[in-house]
Structure prediction request, 258 residues.
Amino acid sequence: LDVGRWAVAARRLEPILAVDDATPGGRGETDGGHARGPAVGVVFDGVTVVEPGAEVARLSDITMTLKPGSTTALVGPSGAGKSTLIALAAGTLRPTGGAVRFIGEDDTPACPRIGWLGQRTELFRGPVAENLRLARFDADDESLRAALIKARLWDALGPDGLGRRLGDEGSGLSGGERRRLALARTMLQDPELVLVDEPTEGLDEATAAEVFDTLLAWADGRTLVFATHRPREAARADRVLTIVDGRLAKDAAPHLIA
Prediction:
């Protein structure tokens, strides 16, 4: 194990976990021994993001509520602000103005565990098991195997299974397999809120469809927010938000999006 490389990867991927035992409704035990509570909603209240020295805001006066258990697609041109919205929900970016907060089914404050899968698939040289444990250091082998099965990657790893060694950036796996491994790592966190930035970026249509199907099946019952450039993916959301120049340009059900 390259400890230095592993430490760098861990800092990049430090799980975004927020557990509040006082959250109404409590948390049920999961297979991995971690507790997952009910799905949560995300409230954006007049949110604006302006970079220091910038004349144009990255996001301007975004006000909306994403309901608990819903699936929301963010669409729009590159640079419109989709990734910024996801970063705000993840808590890795603070708004310049306004506020982002989480709510339960009864609109009371919630403190969710968050799973975030970014555009870049962060993998490092070493065994598959160590790549997975970046999300949960205490996960046993059975939990890792279960996550890989859910992500539909276990069979592709061959006889080495969890011990299969990857090269830099996950070399030795195909693009789709790398994305599935990143998804399995997110699954290990067992989050109430799932945030995914371009889940199938760079994948061919067939592989993209398989990866996206896996994501949707696993996220059922959770709150899912994803950014995408693929109309077929957006069409499977409960709600599609079109972001243009940092503003909410359209908010509609998929069948109403032109």
Notes: The first strand starts at residue 28 and ends at 29. The helical segments are 3-13, 82-90, 128-132, 141-150, 175-189, 205-219, 231-234. The two ends are 51 Å apart (CA to CA).
